[in-house]
Amino acid sequence: MSEQNPQVANLPGWSNHRPCFLARLRAATLALIALATALPQPVTAQGLPLIRDTEIENLLNDYARPVFKAAGLGSGRVAVRIVNNEAFNAFVVDGRNVFIHTGALMQAQTPNEVIGVLAHEAGHIAGGHMAALRTRIAKDQTRALIAQILGIGLMVAGGVAGGDSGRDIGGAGQSVLYGGNALIMRGLTAERRSQESAADQAGLGYLNTTGQSGQGMLSTFERFAGQELFSDQNRDPFARTHPVATDRLARLRQLVEASPFYTVVDSPELQQRHDMMRAKLSGYIENPQTVLNRYPATDQSLPARYARSVARFRMGGNSGLENALLESDQLIKTDPKNPYFWELKADFLQKSGKWTQSIPFLRKALQLSGNDAPLISVQLAQGMLQSKQPELLEEAIALLRKAINREGENATAYNMLGQAYYDKGLIPQAELARAQGLFYFGAIKQAQEFARRAQGALKPGSPEWVKADDIVNYKPQT
Questions:
Q1: Number of domains within the chain
Q2: Domain range spanning residue 101?
Q3: Which has more confidence, 329 or 126?
């Protein structure tokens, strides 16, 4: 909004009676407009409690890949990121990431429920809903400002007029102020509900294209429909951000039941992987005693044994590691081709400071993963570096470089590579790798300090020097 906006400049009484107030309001106006224009900037994962795990990420990618392809989102364009939060929730903030809570993964009984949520969120991305909503919010912030100016203007005029008429006009100003905000909120809510309905229909279209049922999506929204009656404080985040109107739910049910794939169910193999994911999350996230109650010793299923092995380790005590290793050995014996059982045993060893002992198990896990698991590669390289065996240094560097080639923003891999270069005496390369790790972690100032030190010892114009220069000259968007 500019100062020449007639709705501001022509308000009666301001320039004659409140010059200082008008100057302050203009400054506040500029601040609000700056806030509005800042909204469309991409939101990073920094500040969110994200967790990473090869097994779970592979499963979620298998869930999402056909859906994203049907949505026209391409291969690898959108990442599914896992937020460590017990609430059932999933959301998008841009066109590149779908965030899903561990609570949603653990509460979803079937793969189809998670796939339905991913399909719905894909509908938001494909529909450009977040960009549209940010534009609407920015526009409505301007409208809210105009409403406030009109309201304050009337109140100022009332104060100047004095008497009963002044109080009447002042009251009218407050009505404009509050009424304007309520009108804007109703508009935003209406648009949000329209987007939710559009995402439902788009998501169901993707499920039909991929030959999958919409029952999971339907059951998820039916679960939260009752929360419409609750206050925001008592409602789950998913219910607050995905309002389920009665007519919307009825339409969704009609479309799901009309689908030729309505009765399609998840394969036993996919259901098993889903159950293993839930068990793993339970083991690592929940209180160990809660895990043992959820998966009692009488339950000899593979997921239950998986969860208990982690719970045994986390309980600690004199025999905590011993019991966990015994259970992981039994898992390996049951399915020796499962890379994640070998990774699990190595994780127990590493967390107990037994770095050297972890190496052969991680080698096996990486081999069974087709030598294409960046997170396992980084974990193996870390074991090699911590073991302080010089003969493993070159292999560790090769593993870390390969991981970075696959995941160019893996901050942990860069930090490990920095340690490896330090151990090898390559100080400028070490400081550059450290700068890159800090940069992707989001610690920009510290990253720039390391980059300046690296740049001073690197050959000007070399690829490494240019990388350091990019970090030094990076200016965060505001």
A1: 1
A2: 1-285
A3: 329
